[in-house]
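Good morning C.,

I know you're traveling, so I'll keep this short. The sequence:
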Amino acid sequence: MKITRRDFLKASGVAAAAGVLAACSDGGSSSSSSGSDAGGSTGSDSSERPEWAMDADKVSGTLTVYTTMLQDEQDRIQEVFGQLYPDCTVQFQADSVGTLVTKVRSDSNSDCDVIAGGMFASDGTSNEDILQTYTTWQEENDQLTYVDDTHLKSYIDIQEMCIVVNPSLAEDAGVEIKGYNDLINDKLKGQIIVAAPDASSSGFRQLQTILAVMGDEFADDKAWDYIRKLVPLTFTTNSSKDVFNLVAQGEYTCGLSYENAVLDMIADGADIECVYMEEGNTAMASGMSITKNAPNLTAAQALMDMLASKEHGDWRTTHIFGRSNNKYASTKGLKDADELGNVDLDLDYITEHKQELIDKYNEIVAELS
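The tokens, ready to paste straight into the viewer:
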């Protein structure tokens, strides 16, 4: 199953829909707005503010966000958070989640308030030494599908995986890619780009998915045998963004990536395809966390509530094809999850054995390099 530029154009009304951040009077609906995309309803008038928003005068100073989010979402946050809290300035530092977590952990005086993106349910409590708990307004009001029992993370996104394909290069190579098995082809040697699972959240997500769908049981010998066949054909990067960007630029024929980033590039005109693996897929909740020593805690909490909202979820779906964790957010324009062949993951097992799985993968890479 693939999504192409042509498919996107058929649903252009979805992509063009404005993600208005309107005042929300209850958990299941939001009022309509006749204003611009930003919406006049995000002003400082308390009668027009979303129910989940703090008073504007309570949030000020600088909010520093370490993020894996796409630039469009960073821009959206700047715009809407600035309207809600005009006395607060948001600053972003973007990188892979592995790099961002390392930066926070290695600097006790880090200015980071929030790590937004890449904080997955499968991480368990692995980063509890650098995070603090927070319960969003949406969780308190039962608006979220997935909830972190430790409250170290608030989930805003449900991630599906995919293969990003450059159709011109695939045609030149004489290959058709419908799933993982199609990648085991000498014609693709050196033309498959993957993100390292020890450095990239999407890399580890792809490893989970392969181990879940390419064997008879999770991480059985059959699944690892597939990885042994795949590794010699691949080029590895430490950045999730390299995968879809370099495929779009024609440097690689295909790569192991994730749904919303690829669909977003297709919407922007990139000549690539989003292929959902015919062998199956996995879904994983991911989100954001407040750092343990957050310098601007109040602003960090305000951002968490904003990103968990239905309104931000609607914007993510219509603009960057993100599957929101808010129960009331739109899913229009996205493939129904029931069509993707999702296999359930044992989060406790993955959390407990994460390093073991990564180490085994790296051992295979070292052995075959």
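Safe travels,
E.
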